[in-house]
Specification:
The protein has 301 residues and is mainly beta. It folds into two domains: 1-32, no CATH class; 116-296, Pectate Lyase C-like (3 Solenoid). Helices cover 4% and strands 36% of the residues. It contains two helices and 22 strands. The protein has a 15-stranded parallel β-sheet that branches. The longest helix has 6 residues, at 12-17. The radius of gyration is 19 Å and the shape is globular.
Length: 301
């Protein structure tokens, strides 16, 4: 029993929306502790296997079962390398709250992270939910599903302008390397305003917008970058995208798109500028796309 709380165990998901949703008169200590682990954290390497158990210690011989467990025990000061054994790992919207996260498949194996697309509460397969997160690497994994997004990087921008402009920020220093991201409800990768220094290299991104959330919306990009600066997308293969393969908008600046192959898009292959972005998400600078040498083939279905 947590002191001051009416429940023996607090579900972190309850705390996400309302710290008193579990019935506590005030926010219990565990709501502000990432993963509700009572202060226990791990640094260095941790292993996750579909055949593991979250009661294990996360070692190679005793891996965790869920990526969420690994994310929850990550040391917020030192970070964590999460190594996925081969096979399919279920996502019920995996939430990351800490910096210095590296997520990759075990050497010689291939891990698939899969979420369903028909449950609204599973908005993203992977959600980097805290705007202060810094230094994220996702490498050699396959990410599929999510009601809206395969991966979402969050920010503290909002449409009522309650956050002062000079305090607005998002997840920064992101690397997505040698990954497959596909079959998502809407966007394969969603970058919120204020995110910075994003690299997407040597990836295959395809079949966006195949879930029920896109039936009426028809808004599902390969990468949807809304006012995220310093993004590089290089040597990637985009295909069978519902709308635009690469979209940098809302004041996104200093972006480089080069040596990509784009095929079979419902609308544009590469789109840059303010088009189709609500004014609430703009900054005051003019977008500067430094370089665009992307190969476009059959970009309109």
């Amino acid at each position: 029993m947590i002191e001051g709380c009416k429940k023996a165990e607090v579900d972190t998901n309850e705390c996400d929306a309302d710290p008193t949703a579990c019935g506590c008169p005030q926010e219990p200590p565990s709501c502000s502790d990432p993963g509700n682990n009572g202060g226990q954290t791990i640094t260095g390497k941790v292993y996750v296997s579909p055949n593991g158990s979250d009661a294990n210690d996360g070692s190679e011989g005793k891996p965790f079962k869920t990526i969420q467990k690994a994310a929850d025990v990550a040391d917020p000061a030192k970070g964590l390398e999460i190594i996925l054994r081969g096979g399919t790992h279920e996502s019920k919207e995996i939430k990351f709250r800490t910096s210095n996260i590296t997520l990759h498949s075990y050497l010689g194996e291939w891990a698939v992270i899969k979420a369903v697309m028909n449950v609204e509460d599973i908005t993203s397969c992977l959600w980097f939910r805290e705007p202060e997160i810094d230094n994220v690497t996702i490498e050699n994994v396959e990410i599929t599903g999510g009601f809206l997004y395969g991966i979402k990087f969050e920010s503290n921008w909002d449409d009522d302008r309650s956050v002062p402009f000079d305090k607005r920020r998002g997840v920064c220093n992101i690397k997505i390397l040698n990954c497959k991201i596909h079959d998502t409800g809407r966007d394969c990768i969603k970058i919120a305003p204020g995110c910075q220094n994003i690299q997407v290299l040597n990836c295959e991104i395809y079949r966006s917008g195949v879930g029920p959330s896109n039936v009426s919306a028809q808004n599902a990009e390969g990468i949807d970058n809304v006012n995220g600066s310093n993004m590089t997308v290089r040597n990637c293969y985009f295909h069978d995208i519902a709308t635009n393969a690469l979209y940098a908008k809302g004041g996104a600046k200093d972006c480089i798109f080069e040596q990509n192959l784009i095929m079979n898009c419902g609308e544009g292959g590469l789109v840059a500028g303010y088009l189709d972005t609500d004014a609430e998400w703009f900054n005051t600078t003019t977008p500067r796309i430094l370089k665009a040498s992307t190969s476009l083939f059959a970009t309109i279905l």
